Amino acid sequence: MAERARKSFSVRQLPGVTPITLACFAALYAPIVIIVIYSFNAGDSVALWQGFSFRWYAIAAENELVQEATIRSLVIALWASGISTVLATMAALGTTRTAKFPGSTFIYVMINQPLMVPEIVTAVALLIFFAAIKVATGYSGLAYLILAHSAFCVPFAYLPIRARLEGMDRTLEIAAADLYATPWQTFRRVTLPLVAPGIVAGAMLAFVISLDDVIITEFVKSAGQDTLPTYMLGQLRRAITPEVNAISTALLGLTILLLTAFFLLTGRNNDKKP
Predict the structure, then answer these.
(1) What is the 3-state secondary structure (H, E, C) of the chain?
(2) What is the pLDDT of residues 158-195, one digit of tens each?
(3) Which pLDDT tens digit goes with each residue over 43-81?
């Protein structure tokens, strides 16, 4: 009887669940919907609707500062996602394709440490670290931002790659080793093709995280190195215009596109697991 009662239980039968759920979704998405709607406002007001128009998208597209910040953001995100994905793949292989050894749990915790530490702490640490290098070398280029973004993107790329490796059947790798394949041949012809969806998913997640970052970028960047999020933050400090809404909507669209691809890849991987 008790088992039958557990099977018939549904959380939707609890009083107030549906209104609370709807309220949570409204709190999460209503501000975003408002930004998207007012990005098409024909007038200068961010609160008074004055007709539908693509005016602010055209203004943002012709703004040279926006163009430079967009290109800089994409360059940093591409480099950071590439570097962090390579490091995360190596770390995932090292922590899943070796026998358990003393300190392996500590290494796992340290790789994921940036996820648990407040971002402002990481930003201050990177600021102090790179400031010392800038003083010693005199170089103040974009490499600091790329390295900083790569550092905090590693755990975001590591998690889906490790999950993919842990879910893989090792029979093919063992069979390749039995057929005298070298470790490199086994990795290149067996492991890499199987783990590729996890690597792509990790790279896309790292790209999105890097593209959206504000705090660490604000601390590490030098003068004239605004990315798109820090440019928008600077504009908001002066005045709120519908141009910011248009940039936000475009950035939101790109983020949704990449995250959708990420969830499709990870969801397909989960469906293939036995």
Answers:
(1) CHHHHHHCCCHHHCCCHHHHHHHHHHHHHHHHHHHHHHCCECCCCCCCCCCECCHHHHHHHHCHHHHHHHHHHHHHHHHHHHHHHHHHHHHHHHHHCCCCCCCHHHHHHHHCHHHHCCHHHHHHHHHHHHHHHHHHHCCCCCHHHHHHHHHHHHHHHHHHHHHHHHHCCCHHHHHHHHCCCCHHHHHHHHHHHHHHHHHHHHHHHHHHHHHHCCHHHHHHCCCCCCCHHHHHHHHHHHCCCHHHHHHHHHHHHHHHHHHHHHHHHHHHHHHHCC
(2) 999 998 888 888 888 888 888 888 888 988 888 899 89
(3) 887 778 888 888 889 888 888 888 899 999 999 999 999
> What pTM was computed for the model?
0.80
**38 token code pair:** 């007012």
Give which of 228, 236, 246, 242 is closest to 57, Cα–Cα: 246
